[in-house]
Amino acid sequence: MASKLVDSVVAFLDEPFDAVILGVKIDGHLLVEAVLIAAIVFLLMQKSYQPEKKPLTQNEIDQLCEEWVPESLHPPIREEMKIKDPVLESAAGPHTTVDGKEVLNLASANYLGLVGHPKIKEACEATLNKYGVGACGPRGFYGTIDVHLDLEAKIAQFLKTPDSILYSYGLATVASAIPAFCKRGDLLIADEGVHWGIQNGLYLSRSTVKLFKHNDMKHLESLLEEVMREDKRKKKALVRRFIVVEAIYQNSGQMTPLDEVVRLKEKYKFRVLVDESHSLGVLGKTGRGITEHFKIPVEKVDILTAAMGYALGSAGGFCTGSAKVVDHQRLSGAGYCFSASIPPYLASGSIAAIEIIEDNPDLLVNLRRNIITFRKCLSSIHELVVSGHEFSPVIFLQLKKPVSPSADAAILQKIADQMLEESVLVTVSRRSILDKCKLPVGLRLTVSAAHTEEELHAAAASLQRSVQSILQKQ
Amino acid sequence: MAVTIPYFAALTTYFSYGLLFVFGHLRDFFRGFTRSDSTPPEGYAPLCRDFEDFYTRRLYHRIQDCFNRPIASAPNAWIDVIERYSNDNNKTLHRTEKTRHCLNLGSYNYLGFAAQDEYCTPRVIETLDKFAISTCASRAEGGTTSVHEELEALIADFVGKPAALTYGMGFATNSTTLPSLMGKGCLIISDSLNHSSIVAGARGSGAKVTVFQHNIPEHLEEVLRQAIADGQPRTHRPWKKIMVIVEGIYSMEGELCRLKEIVAVTKKYKAYLYLDEAHSIGAIGKSGKGICELQGVDPANVDIMMGTFTKSFGSCGGYIAGSKELIQYLKSVSPGHLYATAMSPPAVQQVISALRLIRGEDGTDRGARKLAQVRENSNFFREELRKMGCEVLGDADSPVMPVMLYNPAKIPAFNRECFKRNVAVVTVAFPATPLLLSRARVCISAAHTREDLVRGLEVISEVSDMVKLKYMPPEEEVDAHLKEKRL
Ligand SMILES: Cc1ncc(COP(=O)(O)O)c(C=O)c1O
Ligand SMILES: Cc1ncc(COP(=O)(O)O)c(C=O)c1O
């Protein structure tokens, strides 16, 4: 039966039939081909095979929601989280009050001793009386007060840059400046020891980030070399490329060899961002920072940022550089556009502080002398290692015989507590779990121009005693 | 509440932006032949990409005199605005010695603490004498003073939480706290119109971030259900934790958060709730305690209460309030606590004094009167604007009220014409709002007198007629609706 059918079909197809459509003679083969093409088209138009997706039913979702158990909002409180921060009962000058007792203050980064300076106080009081405390709005919306503009001009004049821009918080300054210029695809090469504000900026920019070993110019150069080779090979479009360093590292007290950084950035056509938070008012003959120290023209640094909560004895931060660098941030610096401007009295305070630095170069002489004196005293304590650059006003001390990071921190904290007993306030640097910096923590001492040499000698002696008594008990 | 833009306004707005873009690009094209000073040195990419600063060069510069106007007085009810001039077609502006005395409808001075105050200022100056302006240290490393501790106890008590922590900047309060609590494997569900500081914090945390439709609890519920059912992307593991972030008053919309419903949803699905009260703390609620008080929500239902001191309290900084353990945890991990310079002591004192006044602890009813005044002023102003036929967004009691402008040309027109008549207003455009929804934003203060408000309304009415802002027919119905809402 079936073979009969096939036979008749074959016979039918073999039969020459002369249909002529639009001048084309159609025979049996053509018909078969047409049917095949139609079949292929038909198959192609079918959806590809997919296992049928059944969305979860409302009941199933209800059940999943019912079963879900979230973690607690925060991890349990461990013993080492319970550190009680010292509470000051008077201004954080070279001496302050803790628990009703006068202590020598080696915790505040009051490098030039400007905390409580009468000229700053006077300027602030006048501003408070005229403008109140807060600016009650962002810079864009009537939060720009004339003293803000005055301070921006003053900073630019002091650092010999074209213009500058204020932020109301030091930590938010770099964290806003970096993402204003670097986006996805751009390249940032930073020191692995940079402080959290910079790390946050690097992360928020979504750029490619490479880290070089702490203050290791050889490693920086090898990274730059690698980038250049990669670029040559791939012939990629130019992206914005920055080297990011701190003049004096908040996490270690090391100083960036800026001459070398500038040489490298020019050789490899990078731009450079330098955070001068701990070098402004510290380095250079007149306190103009690391560029003055290395006698490098400030234009070589493309973006310069600094917090005003250290040597200037105020708060907030600024960024300075070319007019373009500054103007661009006025519309794209997140912490600038979307936050109330810095209280005018703090701006007045900063202006007064810069004027004091300009008028009193001997403050810098005192500061440097104190740093050198103190470092010398400290180096005679054999149980501890003194780290950081010889001009750094922030000094880190680590145990010569480290045990483990957490045990060391506990020992150092005991030493700090013991020193407070002896009326010297020092702190152990603390590192957030969010912080990617892996440099060791340590006892952190800050030197001020307002300390006397005797006080520093006495502090070192107290440290010596505390170290011995604590280590003996271990 | 969705803004429905009138057809005609939408059409003309698109047309205007189209025109601006075409001419901007034409000018860019011709600039290519004439100017080359902006090209970077050989081997360097330009500092700003062309499309990044097209907006600045071709749109913003034309009207930049409407923004960043400097003032030479406290940002109180009346301000002295410094006049500026430009020699290069508005590209750069220079200060003059002249000022213009203007009614201030722009500052976030809800309770009128921006200026000198007989109670606050002497105390602030006393603190300045005692503690100077800075501790030059982070809170954790020698920057904590007794005033900080006093404020933290006070603000915790005020918002109804066991403990609180303060930071020197509201923006950084969000941008450092969120990464401290959320991370990989966590989910943040954020209101689509949340503030940039929340966006920065959420992004910085490394958690997955999704949004729900602005202020719609039903959509939040949908997003939450789907998120819990799906788990983490790719691995489908369950989320470690989920946090919902909302604001008390949305400052670009003038809207109040639908907190009660949102609390119900977060409770049902075991998500944590983070409430940013930047604009609502001190500004709304019978005793100024913000959105919880206004809507009768127990603060215990909000896991993390955040707020700023830059608005109602006339100071700077921000706080996080929550359980004792939460605060203790934050003290050990939050970069804002460990690394940033502590809040300036006189600014701390300003908040303490303002809070004492609000709570009547100064022995007078000045605080209570301020609270009543800002509410009365706001509702009066909003109602009058509506009656006038302006399109006002937002809810009753909110001291922030946007007035819709739509067309880009109306931004400078409205702003400059009001300024000519000595009224300082804020106009907001893209990118702070969607392209089509440019608006003026009025912020009302307890420091405004009825006379001030009437004067402001007269000017706005006159200018609105001039630039055709009265999109709505002045209706009776609107009033009735408002009254009903207030009951
Ligand atoms: C909702 C919200 N959160 C945070 C902030 C930032 O506060 P601050 O101005 O104190 O940085 C603002 C300010 O505009 C805000 O509106
Ligand atoms: C280099 C540097 N920049 C900025 C900041 C933050 O400064 P502020 O405390 O004023 O927010 C810090 C402090 O951690 C810092 O070390």
TrEMBL record, chain A:
The keyword Transferase applies. One of its GO terms (cellular component) is membrane. Residues 102-463 form the Aminotransferase class I/classII large domain. GO terms for molecular function: serine C-palmitoyltransferase activity. It is an enzyme of class 2 (transferase). Coiled coil: none annotated. SUPFAM superfamilies: PLP-dependent transferases. It catalyses: L-serine + hexadecanoyl-CoA + H(+) = 3-oxosphinganine + CO2 + CoA. Belongs to the class-II pyridoxal-phosphate-dependent aminotransferase family. This is serine C-palmitoyltransferase.
TrEMBL record, chain B:
One of its GO terms (molecular function) is serine C-palmitoyltransferase activity. Pfam families: Aminotran_1_2 (PF00155). PROSITE patterns: AA_TRANSFER_CLASS_2. SUPFAM superfamilies: PLP-dependent transferases. Its EC number is 2.3.1.50. Pathway: Sphingolipid metabolism; Lipid metabolism; sphingolipid metabolism. It catalyses: L-serine + hexadecanoyl-CoA + H(+) = 3-oxosphinganine + CO2 + CoA. The keyword Transmembrane helix applies. Residues 101-460 form the Aminotransferase class I/classII large domain. Coiled coil: none annotated. GO terms for biological process: sphingolipid metabolic process. Keywords: Lipid metabolism, Membrane, Pyridoxal phosphate, Sphingolipid metabolism, Transferase, Transmembrane, Transmembrane helix. One of its GO terms (cellular component) is membrane. Its cofactor is pyridoxal 5'-phosphate. The keyword Endoplasmic reticulum does not apply. It comes from the Eukaryota. The chain crosses the membrane at residues 6-26. Belongs to the class-II pyridoxal-phosphate-dependent aminotransferase family. This is serine C-palmitoyltransferase. It comes from Riccia fluitans.
